[in-house]
Recover the amino acids of this structure.
């Protein structure tokens, strides 16, 4: 009887992982004070993408792959700051936040995690997997009319990642995935505060289309990799593993 073939993702898991090499660190702008960048021995890898893009699933698969190969790995993401995450959740439930207040809430959440989670983990030599980073925050804010130059200054504190991968999925597929998972669409992820449409489905597709356009513009500035997110989970994960191996080998 013929043995079943192993998936491409499982074959990829058997590949040896190279040891991360030190890279030259820098901030996008003014950075945080009293940070010795030369002591950040770990790697910062970012996976971006809208809700329903498969982003969190890919990060979970990458965590298992890296940890299975012996790499100390930690995960960070939006709204995980112990300083403001609960307050941000409560504020968003009211659907009455102004665009500036919403922007500053997320900027505070990011700054707290950068200082208290990301930088300490990198200093300890961990691989940090970020479930979204400043690019999502900037894209959302720009679509809502926040000044791009102001945002660039606000997020000048951000450390430049070793790699950024944006999972690009069409808005039509995103709306199907989100509704299939939760049987509803989220108010803010649908851009309902922008008055694009009274119909949440229509608003979601328009808003996510604007976000995708903004990511394409940001990609020209920040030079991250765009990944075809319409493929199978295994195909995407194998692609990400291969790209991350190159990142780890880079001197």
């Amino acid at each position: 009887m013929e043995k079943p073939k192993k998936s491409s993702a499982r074959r990829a898991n058997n590949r040896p992982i190279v040891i991360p090499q030190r890279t030259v660190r820098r901030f996008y702008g003014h950075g945080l004070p009293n940070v010795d960048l030369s002591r950040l021995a770990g790697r910062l890898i970012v996976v971006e993408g809208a809700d329903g893009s498969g982003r969190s699933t890919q990060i979970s698969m990458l965590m298992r792959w890296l940890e299975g190969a012996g790499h100390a790995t930690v995960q960070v993401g939006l709204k995980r700051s112990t300083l403001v995450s609960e307050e941000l959740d409560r504020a968003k439930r009211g659907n009455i936040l102004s665009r500036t207040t919403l922007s500053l809430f997320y900027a505070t959440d990011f700054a707290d995690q950068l200082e208290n989670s990301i930088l300490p983990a990198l200093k300890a030599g961990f691989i940090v997997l970020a479930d979204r980073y400043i690019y999502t925050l900037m894209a959302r804010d720009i679509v809502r009319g926040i000044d791009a130059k102001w945002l660039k200054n606000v997020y000048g504190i951000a450390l430049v990642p070793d790699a950024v991968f944006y999972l690009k999925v069409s808005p039509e597929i995103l709306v199907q995935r989100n509704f299939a998972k939760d049987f509803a669409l989220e108010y803010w992820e649908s851009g309902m505060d922008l008055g694009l449409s009274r119909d949440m489905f229509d608003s979601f597709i328009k808003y996510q289309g604007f976000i995708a356009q903004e990511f394409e513009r940001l990609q020209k500035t920040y030079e991250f990799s765009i990944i075809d997110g319409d493929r199978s989970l295994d195909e995407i994960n194998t692609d990400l593993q291969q790209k991350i191996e190159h990142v780890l080998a880079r001197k």
Strands lie at 43-48, 73-77, 127-131, 163-168, 225-228.
